[in-house]
């Protein structure tokens, strides 16, 4: 038994492997952060569990597919894809919120749930209709291919890029939430919505904006993930699972929690694959259950 | 009958930095109709919640009929013979008045685990009696959620009485009522309690109500007992006048 | 008397009127009716919205499959034991999952059921030697006459009708009554002496057990079971059926199940975009007819 464990952990002695997995874990964590930050904010402010968030991520990836196809491998094409995915999803998110979600805020939870479920099905099939049923791919822009050297080790440039973008978005979100008036309203809304409208804040526009922001983040995440992930049908069902795990562990409504938990889950998954393939996934759900039982508001959420 | 039905010793509860209860002592004799008064924020609701196990006390003991029941969850305390009503009326909105009382009778008879027999006819007679006792006989078939506020309070009383409590805790039983209705309401509770031999502890703001029916009064102030005694005794105490009665007298 | 006799005669006479294909559908309706009604014990009566009820439907299916293919029992014996084993195994899983899930309420309860279902999904995918992994398990059709839908229909009916009756007795019993009070006011119900967690757990176990029976019977009807039955999207199905039919009546969800299954058959027959159609139907349902079909019908009759 001990031999088995030692064998499974043999890779830990190889710094190249460790570094490579760490990088993979952190960069995946950043992607996970982009999708879960939005999910967490949407729950914190709107109190809706957006099951369709994975579909929004997938749409971002597919928009990137279409836009980069116009100028494959170029930086311009890639930048256009990132902007297009974020903006496009912001618009889609706003449309969904004003057209559908807004009508059922006062309804019993099962209706809200059903509505986001319905969106999963609708958006999933819409993606198939528009982009087909095959896997799609995006070429990494020439600028970001290859690898870079650091600390005597080689790292894929694109993964480094993802980490940089992730940090930038995290800082940007922090600035918006903590340094702008709008951000203060958003944070207040996660704590007490009723108070906010009593103070005269236009909560309807706030909700739309938050959902649009969450969708834009998911779209950006999807576009960034497109070069390294198989963009095919079923992605939207897959990707939301980890996002839920992250949001629970980090705390529903907390962006900081989403960041910490995303990195945690990303790294655990990256090393878990080496150590005990298959068990890592089971571990994340077990962890999710434990957090819900012991400390349901997660690491950084507000206890109810 | 020297053992008080309820004895509270040094009950304390903090919420973060706020000391809601700073060590409350209380002794209620069998047959008492005790009022707990005090300004808003004095800790009355916290007191009830901590006493009945909805909140964990940080210190102190709750002794009911000689047995230490500190921190016991509400459902177990209810089975020992302690009933409660809530400040914001708490009934089973989607059930009709009769069913509200029936479900309480079923639980009291320990039949809430029974999965086969039809429940609709069970204890219907007794339920009607209780509804009549609180003056709701005519409303038996009405959905509890559609009853007027005062009637909901009466229904809540009937639900509580269905469990045959020996001690009944009433949190602001006349809240939200007009002055005249308040006196009628508390007199109803007093009459019914005496008929059924139930000791009562109730919190209240309206002094007219308190002095109309209370056998003893405890004054809470900032989470501690300020004064205690018969209405006449308490009325005469200078501190009480300063802190509380001065506002209403 | 007519109101009871007519549907009963209809149910008994169906196999004579339907083709094999539609009999399969009828069997599916029966199984899903039990599934939806058992789910509604939690939602409509207990006020507990579970995101993970498909776990028990799936467990029932896999329990049947593993019993038939892995237990090494002679064919007939294995099939005879399926209903009992499915009930017992699903109840056991429901006890384990329920024990932890009812410690929380509302959204946390729902996420717990989600987490446990995904755990089971992962196990079904990975434990390839036992569960067949991604391919699922096939060859589950009953032996002899029961392999024909004409006879299997009666077999399923003989199990599902009593099961529904048991659930009916239960929701109208003192236990069911207490459950409704619990949904109406979980705080007040404690003060009449009711242990909320214990009651929720019992409801959860009963609900899960019957969902498992439904899953097993469906697995035998189609002859296979797949890990997809345990994926989180599968948990939308009981919710849709219950809300579609109406959560405030006992048989509402059964009606919802019938409508859902028939719609799926009709639409899937014409297009591969059934999810899109289902999504649109759900949106329409939620926005236009929140009380479901029975609520709508009741209001029309009033």
Give an account of the 3D structure.
The complex is a heterotrimer of chains A (304), B (249) and C (302). Chain A contains twelve helices and two strands, in the order αααααββααααααα. Chain A is mostly helical and 304 residues long. In chain A, a hairpin with a 2-residue loop joins strand 1 and strand 2. Chain A is globular and about 60 Å long. Chain B is of the alpha/beta class and 249 residues long. Chain B has nine helices and ten strands. In chain B, strand 9 and strand 10 form a beta hairpin. The longest helix of chain B is centred in the C-terminal third of the chain and has 18 residues. With 302 residues, chain C is mainly α. In chain C, 76% of the residues lie in helices and 1% in strands. Chain C is built from 14 helices and two strands, in the order ααααααβααααβαααα. In chain C, strands 1-2 form a two-stranded antiparallel ribbon. The model of chain C has no long low-confidence stretch (mean pLDDT 93). At the A-C interface, helix 5, helix 10 and helix 12 of A face helix 5, helix 11 and helix 13 of C.
Task: Write a concise synopsis of the structure shown.
Chain B is of the alpha/beta class.
What are the SSEs and their pairings?
The complex is a heterotrimer of chains A (304), B (249) and C (302).
Chain A: H1 2-8, H2 15-46, H3 53-70, H4 75-99, H5 109-131, E1 147-150, E2 153-156, H6 157-179, H7 181-191, H8 193-198, H9 203-225, H10 235-250, H11 255-275, H12 279-294
Helix pairs in contact in A: 2-6, 2-7, 2-9, 2-10, 2-11, 3-4, 3-5, 3-9, 3-10, 4-9, 6-7, 10-11, 10-12, 11-12
Chain B: E1 6-15, E2 18-28, E3 33-37, H1 44-51, E4 59-64, E5 67-68, H2 74-80, E6 82-85, H3 97-108, H4 124-133, H5 149-162, E7 167-170, H6 179-196, E8 199-203, H7 207-213, E9 216-221, E10 224-229, H8 231-236, H9 238-248
Chain C: H1 2-17, H2 20-45, H3 54-70, H4 75-101, H5 106-126, H6 128-131, E1 137-138, H7 149-171, H8 174-184, H9 186-190, H10 196-222, E2 224-225, H11 236-245, H12 252-270, H13 274-288, H14 292-301
Antiparallel strand pairs in C: 1-2
